[in-house]
Every structure is written in structure tokens, then in C-alpha cells.
Amino acid sequence: MLRRTALFLPLAAPALAQPGERPIRLVIAFPPGGSTDLLGRLIAPRMAESLGATVTPENRSGASGAVGAGHVAQSAPDGTTLLLDSGGQSVNPFLLRGLAFDYVRDLAPVTLLATLPLLLVARAEFGAATLPDLLARLRAEPAQARYGSVGVGARTHLAMAALLRRAGIAGEHVPYRGGADQIAGLLRGDVPMGFTSIALAAPLLRDGRIRALAVSSATRSPGFPDLPTVAEQGFAGFAMGDWLGLLVPAGTPAPVVARLAAAAADAVNQPALRPRLADLGLQPAAEGPVAFARFLAAERAEMEALIRGEGIRLDS
């Protein structure tokens, strides 16, 4: 059960600081070792060069990212505390009760950093080579319609729920504690299928233990150019993946936000970084605060409709 900790407390108006005047904390809302953490540690030194200030990554995980988000929401809006968050931004408001801060009111977008397509995979022994094959098997054998995810409300959960909903198939969700556990369950045969990250799927695809059936993004993944999207296989308009972006406390002055956004874009678009991002399945997508605000609004509307439509709860 999630502990309902007060995550937002009002603060007195702070003195403003330009990036470069004081050290900057990059609060990463998830534990070490995941895509969010790895991206944060890759961009921090490059942002430091652009801003002329120390940028220190700091993991504050818990409650699907809400602990880190709440900490930043209560920080001074002076440009010295940043939040690196992912898709929980557009999911947590509809899943977590008792939050003492508001994602929209108390945090301001800086820039989307990268998107993370998901791969729909199935055990090799399951015999499905394409998404239509998989759906035909599930319609013929409804008891096989079990899928794993990294947890309730995660994109690996929501993407499969959305796909099965559109296919008219009732699925059974089996949540795991993380990507490694989800893959282990798949290989054991607990579940025959599920969406997962490119980084986790790649080694198993190479040795033939699983098969990739589709990519969840609107366009094909550069790392898997021959793998069709879900949309190409009969589900027009389907596009769902994870994303990573920067936010600051609401009230941070626009010129400060603009400078942080520029430094982040420079960092994520460094040519030397692209091979590492590709290994993680991340696609750079830094376009600044205005585009990120539009992106977040659309994401929240889509996720709210899906979560409420499927009746998804933290105990489901």
C-alpha cells in the first residue's frame, strides 16, 4: 500500500537565480538503473557545460514518481531544482489518491527529452509471428489472453489494455515489480505476451527466446526498421509509449525555463550521446516548454479516458 505522505508544502517567495549562479539539482523520480536514471546521468554533465553550473543527479523515487515530483513541487521556483520524470506525470493524477500537490498547478514543463517506444513481444513457443497471429490465437483460446507489465498504470500495462480493448478481447493483467521480473515471468510461461522496453527485449530477440510482433509508437523504431507498428497491423492511430521530460516548480520565470530547455536540448542532441540513447531505445524529442505543455495536456486526456474506461485501479 502506498504511504500517503504530504508531498507539497507552500513556501515563501524565493530569491530568483539564473542557471549558473548556484548548483542545480536534477531530481530523478525513479530508482537507479532504469531508463530515467540513465538518461539523467548522461545529460547532467552536458547540461552543466551549457549552464556553467554543477548539475547533480539525485534519485527520489517512490509512488510511481510522485515522491520526486512532490519534492520538486515544493522547491523554490528559482531554476536550481529540476524534475526528470516520465509517463507517471499523465497517469498518477488518476491513480493516486491523497496527493498533496497538483501535477498541473504546481509543476511547469521545461521540455520533453526523449520518447521510448515499446515492443509487443511473445514467447517463441507461443507460435505467433505477427500481431494478427497473436489476436487470432487469443480469440480462439481466451484463457491465453494473459499479459505481463511492470506494474498497474505503467505504460506496459496501459498499452496492452488499450490494444486488447480495441481488438474486443478481454485480457488478464499480471503486474510484476519491474521489467526484469516481467521478462522472467514471460520466459517461465506465466504469461505468453506483453509490451516491454527495447533495452530489455533486444538480447532475448537476438537469441530467439522471444519474438517481436509490433512496436507501439506511431512510426517504426530506427532500431527495428522491419518491425511494423501496431497501427500498421489494423489499429489506425494507435500510438503509445513512454517518455521522459524535465519540469520545474510552477512560478519559475520564463527566461530561466527557456535557458534550461535550451541546455537540455543541447545535451540530449549531442552526437556522441546518440548511440547510447539508441541502446536504451530512447529517441531524442526536445522541443521546449510550449510543445511539452501541449504534449502533456494530450497525454493526460488520453490516459484519463483509458484508465476510467478500463476501470484501472492500483489494486487491479
From TrEMBL:
InterPro entries: BUG, Bug_dom1. It holds the Pfam family TctC. SUPFAM superfamilies: Periplasmic binding protein-like II. Coiled coil: none annotated. It comes from the Bacteria. PANTHER family: BLR1237 PROTEIN, TRICARBOXYLATE-BINDING PROTEIN. Belongs to the UPF0065 (bug) family. This is Tripartite tricarboxylate transporter substrate binding protein.
